[in-house]
Amino acid sequence: MARIGVFICHCGHNIASAVDVEAVLAYAKTLPGVVFAGHNIYSCSQEGLSSIKSSIKEHQLDRVVVAACTPRTHEPLFRKACEQAGINKYLFEFVNIREHVSWIHAKEPVAATEKAKKLVAMGVAKAALLQPQTEGEAAVTPVAVVLGGGLAGLTAASSLAGQGIETHLIEKSERLGGLLRDVSVIGPEGELAKPLLDDMISRLTRSKHGHIHLKSTVKGISGFVGNFELTFVEGCDEKKIKAGAIIVATGANEFTPVGDYGFGSVPAVVTQLELERRLAKGDVAGDVVFIQCVGCRQPGREYCSRICCNVSLKNALRLLTLSPGSAVTIIHRDIMSSGTAAERVYKEASETGVRFVRYGLERPPKVSAEGDGAVVEVFDETLDETIELDAGLVVLATPLVSPPDSEETGKLLKVPRDKHGFFLEAHVKLRPNEFATDGVFVCGSARWPVSARECIYQGLAAAAKASIPIREGKVVSEAITAYADVDKCAACGNCVLTCPYDAIEIIQVKGKLAAKVNEAVCKGCGSCVAACPNDAMQQKGFTTQQLGAMIDALVKGALEGAQ
Amino acid sequence: MTEFNPTILAFCCNWCSYAGADLAGVSRLQMPPNVHVVRVMCSASVKPEYIFKSLVQGIDGVLVLGCHIGDCHYLTGNHRTAKRVPIAQKLLDDVGVDSRRVKLDWVSAAEGEKFQQVITEFVDEIKGLGPNPMRGVRL
Amino acid sequence: MQRVVVIGGGIAGIQASLDLADAGFEVHLVEKSPSIGGHMAQLDKTFPTNDCSMCILSPKMINCADHERIKLHTYSEVESVTGEFPKFKVKIKEKARYIDLERCTGCEDCVAKCPVKVPSEFEAGLAVRKAVYLPFPQAVPRKVTIDADHCRMIKEKKCGVCKKVCKAGAVDYEQKDTTIELNASAVVVATGFDLMDASSVLQYGLGHCKDVVTSLQLERILCASGPSSGHLARPSDGSEPKRLAFVQCVGSRDAKWHEYCSSVCCMYATKESILAREHVPDIESTIFYMDMRATGKGFQEFVSRAKSAYGVRYIRARPSSVQPGEGGKGVLVSYETRGPAGEPVTEEFDLLVLCPALVPSRGTAELAKLLNIKLDSDSFVRTSGLLRPIDSPRKGVLACGFASGPMDIPDSVSQASAVAARVAELLAQGSG
User: Fold this and answer.
1) What's chain A's Rg over C-alpha atoms?
2) pLDDT digits (tens, 9 = 90+) for A495-507
């Protein structure tokens, strides 16, 4: 008989505010196999973990159930604690009573507590049937692939190559540099874009570890951390690369505001990138009006694109330097010049004579053609009146948007995107440049609109993360692979047909034909388990007995609850 | 008479729908407390037997939630799920169990709101169907 | 194995240490206070998901302590850094904590008996700690420290209670500072920020109005494990506030104090407004702001949700003065409504929260001096321009997180991870 310990976490008030921890604790003590149940304010604190470890020893526990938050973030921590206390880490079961209970049933404490009890009972039922496991190890291909040759991708690739790691940079267009190619001066400190890009590209081309593939499109990606295989078409040739890690740096596009504020019909209305191109040639004169938040911070595209205010501030100052007498106005809703340098530029712009006019979403400016130029009519919230501005050029500051092909990239890599199409990182606070999928990383505006400076440090961050499995030289795979019970197997071959990885074959085992799983190839999806008509295929940690026991426990809990 | 309070089981794949459920939690999206999530690695590992066993023993409804088609972490797992669950539903209908007690849907890691919506709607649907007649029956 | 010294044990220093260690370096993490964790450990929740701050930080703190390639030096300071890349010599002073770390079990029996009460730094002065103390329950390492400035035994040779009650024999009043010297290939500055003393911005009443607190204090008040166990109460009479207000840019974006924008206040004020509403369902929150800077992922949506679902009122105005309310309870906030017909208004609130400028942490200037690196005009660590956003001009000395300028947690984490790539690059080039 198993000796199960159950630990219920208060998570401060996060769980305890909706779930009656004492009641769940008392209930847990009545469950079959449970010899100890305890609770912690924060189970994940050093104190909480050491109390779990000492309880394991004191009560000779051989199975541990923690009811707390989500296994997706905290399972490794508790598994490690189990290991430190001398029990196999696969004898641990996690029950989620925070994300799946207290946070989503905040106003229903009675029902939340009942649900938590049932989930704990299910966890305990499964835990009783857990078996110790050993993990597989696989070698890592010491190669990194970076998708996207804009500033973020270039930074990541040149850092990796500079660290001595074989690095392939795959860029769909015929040139490197991305959006920055159209920018001459980078804000807020006024560095020149071209020398910066040239420096970075030359470092990559000079390095014997850097390999650049232009006009290249990825067609397929298979494999897992340490052992990816990419198929891509470079020009007309199909090529394959094996890689240990992949960085997504596919960037973003400037939103084209067709139909907004006369864009497309009034020639004097241009986007920010068009202004950049004209400024590079010195080809701008006369009065200029910038309109901020065009196509964003409004229903349908609610986000702030982070960099547009700073770009307008930078360009407003450049315009005043170019033609000191001209009138430059920025029509905005809030100036987003966070930090030190950007705020300094804002102040400088105000002092240099850039006019700032604040408008509200409910009364947007109107632009109409007038001669070669345009007239902008806007309700100035500060003056509380409508004003008219003549402009030789009206610059629309539009957001960066996710490029159309990022959907395809997301699908190829099986990584999620948010509702705006930007890639969704593993954790918004603490894992900004990683995906939940091991071995795949993200940086730059593919994740969220960012400045050049942010592109660079995010590129470095992604490079650091990608270098870790490559330096380690091996990846340890979780023991969740499938196996066949030879005695039950009738060698029907359903599992062989089902397996997406060709990991199963029918061979002679113990004098009969039976399925055999190649553990090095099996990724632990469990598809074969569902396909097996004889209950012979099993998945470690998810056996049919374990899941059956969870169902039984829920049924039992429901019947108890109904009485 | 007390209101019917169904007991529902949801199989969620680790990569998409379980993460979507977590996101719903992090976003504090409120939903009825009837659904109990079991984490599996892939929706394709959900044996039809689990569904039958649950319903036979009186669970009022079973949800199978996976990644959207094309997003499966295991390449094609959810294609199999998409075929397997309807077969299970047909078998249920054949033996006189209302197949509306079983539902298959896709929830991505970014769809906390969709998770909330699927849960809320399914609980309503099961409430409409009433208690599983097998509840409490000893076989 | 090549060695890196990381200075500062907040989230930036923690993340830099973890990534450097995972990339194969031996890391020495030097933190001046008794525990790693930094300001993030003090936060109740994090924007824009309202994820519990301690819950996501604590596993990283523990990983630091458990990592075979990380050595923690808490309650320690860097004394000198000599030599050049890649051969620095770093002297670290491990301050006497009068506790044998090998013996201390963190049982806190000594804390219970210590007679001396001192305002708790971790609780932002809202609660007291003892002269022997664990800074917070999740501290890493979970070992107590005796604060020599307040310990009666150390100051006056009167007391000795902690030693008497310590069953582990961990108390040692004779302990001395020790200095260790290390060779290191690189040094990372991750010294973070402090709140400016908002009481010096006299018009906002901190210090003379009881019901004016700082945003960090509110963070502690809202926290379940905070001084009031998460019960929102105002200081003057302990009553539950119904009208709450925030003033943004206190001492920042202000030529008289700090001209820069602290980058995170718009969002944390929004977060704290939402949390306050979750604690007190009928509370009304008002945020006085200049520009609502919601530029990160999900931030604009967060502000919209604060308005629509939590009724938070955003008023674009900079209050001119704050006076105590009747009987010293609550506050009267004067500001001008906008537009040319703008007129002065005085509104009464039960509790006022100031969002002060976030400034380089105390000691940054001295550290920069001993590292021979420069500060920028806002006193943050100066880095080498756009291409090298985390390198200081002194080769092999890097800076990440708030030490080099205002930024939020994900940006600090990105920069911290970036350190591992830069150190590896520099050393790969250094070795040919």
Assistant:
1) 30
2) 999 998 889 999 9
CA atoms of C35 and C134, how far apart (whole Å): 8
pLDDT by residue (tens digit) across C384-424? 988 899 999 999 999 999 999 999 999 999 999 999 999 99
Q: Which range marks the domain in which residue C117 is found? A: 109-165
Is the domain of C37 the same as that of C71? yes
Write out the H or E segment, with its range, that includes residue A29. helix A21-29
Q: Which residues, 6 or more positions from C158, have their beta carbon under 8 angstroms from its beta carbon?
A: C152
Q: Please write the tens of the pLDDT for every residue from C336-394.
A: 987 666 789 999 999 999 999 999 999 999 999 999 999 999 999 999 988 899 999 99
Whether residues C371 and C390 share a domain: the answer is yes
Domain boundaries, chain A: 4-133+540-562, 143-252+402-475, 255-400
B contact residues 82-121, partner C, Cβ 8 Å cutoff? none
Residue C411: name the closest of A445, A454, A155 by CA: A454
For chain B, list the contacting chains (3+ Cβ pairs, <8 Å).
A, C
Enter the ipTM: 0.97
Contact A456 C292 (CB under 8 A): no
Same domain, C204 and C292: yes
Q: What pLDDT is stored for residue B139 in this prediction?
A: 59
Task: Answer whether A4-133+540-562 and A255-400 agree in fold.
Answer: no
Pair of tokens at residue A517? 């799983």
Most B CBs within 10 Å: which of A72, A525, A535, A560, as the mutation test of the B interface? Answer: A525
Question: Nearest chain C Cα to B24, which residue?
Answer: C49
Distance from CA of B71 to the nearest CA of A (A): 5
User: In which order are the strands placed within the sheet that holds C321-324?
Assistant: C321-324, C331-336, C344-349
Which of C143, C425, C426 best probes binding to A when mutated, by most A CB atoms within 10 angstroms? C425
Determine the pLDDT at residue A136. 85
